[in-house]
Design goal:
The complex is a heterodimer of chains A (209) and B (133). Chain A has 209 residues and is of the alpha/beta class. Chain A has helices spanning 16-19, 25-41, 66-71, 81-90, 134-137, 165-175; strands at residues 7-13, 47-53, 74-77, 95-98, 106-110, 113-116, 150-151, 154-155. Chain B has one domain: Rossmann fold (3-Layer(aba) Sandwich), CATH 3.40.50. Classes of the chains: A alpha/beta (209), B alpha/beta (133).
Chain lengths: 209, 133
């Protein structure tokens, strides 16, 4: 991806990817060192600059690295996919490359473990299922109870590692004394607020200048 | 050999062991960095040492199951393993980074570890796996 780049800026993001130890200042240093070592080994001449900004999803934070970005032939962004794209928009004509393989948006379950919680799909149903999302927690995103692959609380997709989302929902609703609510039929989800509806946008009229 | 081997030593164990070493060859070969615990080691720092041209990196913690801070040495081990796999990805021999566990009275082991490390580095250099600065 960066083999032919003569001057590369590795740009970290100081927010989400920093706390999940994927693309903050430390990871920028690690990647830069690894790349310099491999370049030296393969006699590749590449100047590597390093920097990290507060966020790559807000335009103003890019000002701090504007000179470095302009100087670089390409920017290897360690932000999530949002930052990579937004950097390319802020610096028109500059090549922004993804340094991470953004997989999902989740929670820090325990030290060193992250798991998916929200798909950001719109028409949120968390209120109906005890605060557990059937879209992300059930492997099949079922809305009206578990499939036949739920065994001992685990999901047939990966019985060792994936909990059955519907077992979790059932247990939580029972604990909340709301089990009767699960008898209500959940209609087919309108996916037009998710990937089906094209790129999504939120406009706060009270904020727009 | 270029710059010295960097030996990150836990002040509760290997640092004390190193302090009692008198072998000039061994002491000449290493640059000792004192850590409050081997668990303080950072992957970036290990790679930076190699990037800066040091021949190799040693991380020396307390004996297994006898870390002063309970889990520092096992954390250090995981970080060293991560650094080693990154080196492998970069095409650099993983043996340029090594972790070992010794107590404060194991000066003879310290000497042995440094000697073995020098051999590993020489092997890697002979195999052409180490690029010069």
């Amino acid at each position: 991806m960066v083999r032919d780049v003569k001057k590369l800026l590795i740009l970290g993001c100081g927010t989400c990817v920093t706390v999940c130890m994927a693309g903050g200042e430390k990871e920028v240093g690690i990647l830069a060192s690894t790349l310099r070592l491999t370049n030296r080994r393969n006699n590749i001449s590449m100047e590597i600059m390093e920097d990290t900004i507060e966020r790559q999803c807000d335009r103003e934070f890019f000002d701090a690295v504007a000179d470095k970005v302009r100087e670089a032939d390409a920017v290897l962004s360690l932000a999530c996919g949002v930052g990579v794209q937004f950097g390319g928009e802020v610096f028109e004509g500059k090549r922004f490359l993804p340094g991470l393989n953004t997989s999902f948006y989740g929670a820090n379950e325990s030290v060193g473990v992250w798991s998916e919680r929200c798909a950001g799909c719109g028409n949120c149903v968390l209120d109906k299922f005890g605060g557990l999302c059937p879209i992300t927690r059930c492997s099949k995103s079922l809305l009206n109870g578990p499939c036949g692959g739920s065994q001992n609380g685990m999901c047939e997709v990966d019985p060792e590692n994936i909990e059955c989302g519907w077992q979790l929902i059932y247990d939580r609703m029972k604990a909340l004394g709301l089990l009767h609510k699960l008898e209500e039929n959940e209609p087919v989800k309108d996916w037009s607020t998710s990937r089906d509806g094209g790129p999504r946008k939120i406009i706060r009229e009270d904020m727009v200048q | 050999m270029g710059k010295k081997i960097v030996a990150f030593c836990c002040e509760n164990s290997s640092y004390k062991a190193a302090a009692a070493v008198s072998d000039a060859d061994v002491l000449d070969a290493v640059e000792i960095v004192r850590l409050p615990c081997s668990g303080k080691i950072e992957i970036g720092l290990v790679l930076k040492c190699l990037e800066d041209g040091h021949a190799g990196v040693l991380v020396l913690g307390c004996p297994v199951d006898n870390c002063k801070y309970l889990h520092g040495n096992t954390r250090a081990k995981k970080r060293v393993q991560r650094a080693q796999s990154l080196l492998e990805e970069a095409g650099i021999p993983r043996q340029l980074v090594h972790i070992d566990f010794i107590s404060s009275v194991d000066s003879h082991k310290f000497v042995e570890i440094v000697r073995e490390m020098k051999e590993r580095i020489a092997e890697a250099q002979a195999a052409g796996g180490v690029a010069g600065e």
